[in-house]
Amino acid sequence: MKVESGYGALPEADKFSNFDRFCLFFCxxxxxxxxxxxxxxxxxxxxxxxxxxxxxxxxxxxxxxFLSVFSFMNVxxxxxxxxxxxxxxxxxxxxxxxxxxxxxxxxxxxxSVGLNNPSLITEEMHNAVSLNFVDYFSDINYGFASYSRxxxxxxxxxxxxxxxxxxxxxxxxxTGILAEDAGEFSAGxxxxxxxxxxxxDSLFSIGANLKTIYSSFETYNSxxxxxxxxxxxxxxxxxTASLIARNIGRQLKTYTAGNNEPLxxxxxxxxxxxxxxxxxxxxxxLTNLQKWDLTYEDPAADEIDPFTGEVKTKSKAxxxxxxxxRHVVIGGEFIPTKNFSFRLGYNYQRRQEMKVDSKRSTxxxxxxxxxxxxxxxFSYARSAYHLAGSPNFLSIAFNLSDFGDSRKxxxxxxx
Length: 415
Description:
The protein is of the alpha+beta class. β5 (204-217) and β6 form a beta hairpin. A 14-stranded antiparallel beta barrel has the order 1-2-3-4-5-6-7-8-9-10-11-12-13-14. It starts with 17 loop residues before the first helix and ends in a 16-residue tail after the last strand. The chain is built from six helices and 14 strands. Helices cover 19% and strands 37% of the residues. α1 packs antiparallel against α2 (53-73).
């Protein structure tokens, strides 16, 4: 079945050549660059003249236009089953996964957080390395490797290789019966991500990711480009807020001719706060802000009244609360020492979609730990997706500068 492109205003997009699609994508990049530049200037002006109503109104209008344009352009690329390259939205970092989602607004120079929030890429991450692995369901596994480097004039960069391996499959006929000479085939997807972040001043930072995406399922291959754009506010009190528009882009080469699928576009807002008198940080993530109703029709979820035999219906208030909570992910991080942390998270939407009513268990909950040993940071997380199993997240991070000279290099980068 054909899936329409997220660019609803382009009904003839499937007839475009790869060159046409690249040109369209390049125009979007130009718009993003212009927007970020204008936004940066206004943020600086706003910081110097915070009481200026004109500046605040102009900045708010730019944000509304930006979010409206890309929400409309990707209106059909919101939730599962309607887009391709879904691995881009999987939680990769154990720290992020332990706190329930795939995005956090925590600014403490953690490179693994930078893959999903480029506005948190900082010069303190220079020469940092982060290696992450996820033991997913069955023989599926995925992860990423990142390296960060800072240049005084250009800003801070993070290069990441992201992958997912779906394992090997045996050829069968259309009825599922093995052929006499049955062989095997593999499936996997990859993304080369170049992230950039820059601190505008003590309060604001911006960042962007450029993603080159390749997908292969047996003999079906696809190639695409995507962009993330993010901005963060950092309060001296330890409060951080981040807004991101993820996976803005399109397929340049489709799996089959005439079937152009959208990327999994999403707008997210995250906040976090390190408490002043307790070794604790809370995190709240708001997901899929481009779409209000994330529910779907599930006849198996209908509750029957044992007296009337009719299907129970929720009240208006209960229905509103259910739809609102599907956007909310709550997490917390207990940090008793600088070398150890314990994390917890709760994802309401995941619990509602994946629970089994007869045995709900801990579906939707997640936990993890962080441990620093010498020059290495280790993290582990376990997230309860379903009674059938729970993925395990592992990571190790370190900084190459800790093993050598910290002097400045001749090429302008920090060592």
